[in-house]
Amino acid sequence: QVQLVESGGGLVQPGGSLRLSCAVSGSRFPYYAFAWFRQAPGKGREGVSCISSSDDSTFYRDPVKGRFTISRDNAKNTVYLQMNDMKPEDTAVYYCAADFGPCGWSGAEYDFWGQGTQVTVSP
């Protein structure tokens, strides 16, 4: 069973930065595509970024393009989400998800999930 553990959330002021980490157990890390999803209070879950397993292609949803960067370190079994120029609308619980398939924006496509980490952007 794969386990994903997120960390790095917290409180940050608008314009600030945070880096989320997702530590992944098991030996099949290089074969997973990884995505970051978020869920704001009272809203549905939305995908924000994904990195493929095949060639490390990266994908971003429009609200975070140019501000967020996803990366993976296969030697450390860790996925990262660097978040810059943060905005109050980035406030949400952020989840890391993994799947053997290609990147996608539907949560139903992902078989493995972390427990989430809270990110709050506020003055």
Alpha-beta classification: mainly beta
**N-to-C order of helices and strands:** EEEEEEEEEEE
The counted number of beta strands is: 11
Low-confidence regions: none
Give the amount of beta strand, in percent: over 45%
Report the mean per-residue pLDDT as an integer. Answer: 96
Main sheet summary: 7 strands, mixed
Shape: globular
Rg is: 13 Å
What is the terminal separation in angstroms?
40 Å
Topology:
Layout: E1 4-7, E2 10-12, E3 18-24, E4 33-39, E5 45-51, E6 58-60, E7 68-73, E8 78-83, E9 92-99, E10 112-113, E11 117-121
Tag the structure with descriptive keywords.
globular, 11 strands, 4-stranded antiparallel beta sheet, 123 residues, 0% helix, 7-stranded mixed beta sheet, mainly beta
Short description:
The protein is built from no helices and eleven strands.
Describe the protein's architecture and organization.
The protein has 123 residues and is mainly beta. Helices cover 0% and strands 47% of the residues. The protein has no helices and eleven strands. Strands 2, 4, 5, 6, 9, 10 and 11 form a seven-stranded mixed sheet that branches. Strand 5 (45-51) and strand 6 (58-60) form a beta hairpin. The protein is globular and about 40 Å long.
